[in-house]
User: Fold this.
Amino acid sequence: MRYLYIVNPAANGGKAAKTPEHIRAFYQDAENDPNRSWELPEYEIQLTEAPGHATELAQAAAPNWDVVVAVGGDGTVNEVCRGLIEAKQGTLGVIPAGTGNDMAGGLNLPKNLREALVQLHLGHEHPLDYGLANGNVFMNSASVGFDSLVAHHTNQIKLKVRSHWAYVIGLITALVSFRAPTVQLPKNLPERAGWGGQKRDLCLLAVCNGRFYGGGFEILPDARLDDGQLDICLITNISKLRLLSLLPTIFMHTHLRQRRYVRAWRGRSLTLNMLGSAYLCVDGEIIPLERGESVDFQIVPGAIKLRS
Assistant:
């Protein structure tokens, strides 16, 4: 077996820069371990240098390496997957080394580096789904609304403030500036969703492939990365103050009971017409949506091979 590790050294505030030396130490120790139950692979480590670089590396590596391993956060996993999709071949591995690691959580991967490496070598291949949001690949989630505005402001603030305060300032800025965009919902929503054909003030739309979202929130706890379905949560016609009071209930999985404001359902696609401007967040990447634009979500079942 041949493993290529694509490491994002900027992940987790730069802490992932030390990951290559830990991977090399793992293999050195494994070589001398008489109890090792897996075969030592040929491996190589490559570092990303800029946004989008992991996609280029993965696409080039796919024909030549048995497993292409994303080492970083959800953004790194997304970029590596896009490279494999463009190459139309290759098997994905994931070593969580980012801040949120939502996709790794959905895959039940160990947080400890050595444990994750052992599981990678003892694992088997199985298929994963991926989603598309206006043609943009997402492995874990895509969203529109308040959370996307927070992410937009946080990304801007991180250019000047590199600490957890960037998120706090981003949250406060979003609270002050957020205006819920009106959306036109499709008429063919399932019965449990309701609101079909209505115009609603969209506070938050989460379209999930995996069950973790936003750095550990299980906003859709039944979502699975390999079930051929999107899990969708829509929160509308709610004040910012009430939204803040709703957020803690996500940890207790009781937010879905608030049917006056919250609806959840499953499906293979969803299209919304934006009657106001907003931001689309795709695995952490921010994309502006203009008034009058449609946003289309789809699932692509079983198109990624994962080793875990």
The CA atoms of residues 86 and 270 lie 24 Å apart. The first strand starts at residue 2 and ends at 7.
